[in-house]
Please model this.
Amino acid sequence: MFSLFNKKSVRYIEKSVNKYNQILEDDINLIIRTIYKGKLYTSDVEYLNNREVLFRCPIDKYDIIRFDEQSIIKVEFVSYSGLYTTELLITEKIIEDNVLYYKGEFSSPIEKNQRRKNYRLPIVLDLNYTLLPRERIEYSGNTLDISIDGMLMETYENIYQTKNLKVKIDIDGKTHDIKSTIIKKRTNFRNSTYLYNLKFDKLSIKQKNEISRFIFDNKNLRDKKLV
Model:
């Protein structure tokens, strides 16, 4: 591994990977971005394990990126805690169930670029939700992360009838009914569930303050544990 690079480069890469690997690996909603022929593409990271990354082939409608093996690409990881830039050496192309994946290895140190606008707290909270506008059936699910703007929801239900939900969730001992909009959907192949990125609609100032305080308090606890 890293045979293309000298020992000094390898040390810098390993140092940065050791520093940021756990943060990126723990983010189930991790996104990878790259610019190809002047166009920005985003895709899902299937797994990140130490120096190795497996990600879906970036696609824009019918435009598919085809990387050559042993080519080096500049990428950016979008995580709940910030943006991380680096370069990947493409080592393998994998086709599974008619889906194209690329495997790569870090070929330059990972650098934290900037913080996201709103911090996403990785946390599992039970919730119930109904589909708007009818609200006939109440379904169950859970969060995987939450921010002041929205959440990543996991559920066994394949939602296709609507993009509008009402989520009922207990936050710090208080039940909140939050109207939300689905902005992204994907399948979690690890356990056959569906993942939905939800955007909160028209939160009251009181709700924003309570959710923000909950996120801040739990972020401090998380940071202390990491230290």
In short: The longest strand covers residues 82-96. The chain has two domains: 7-114, 121-226.
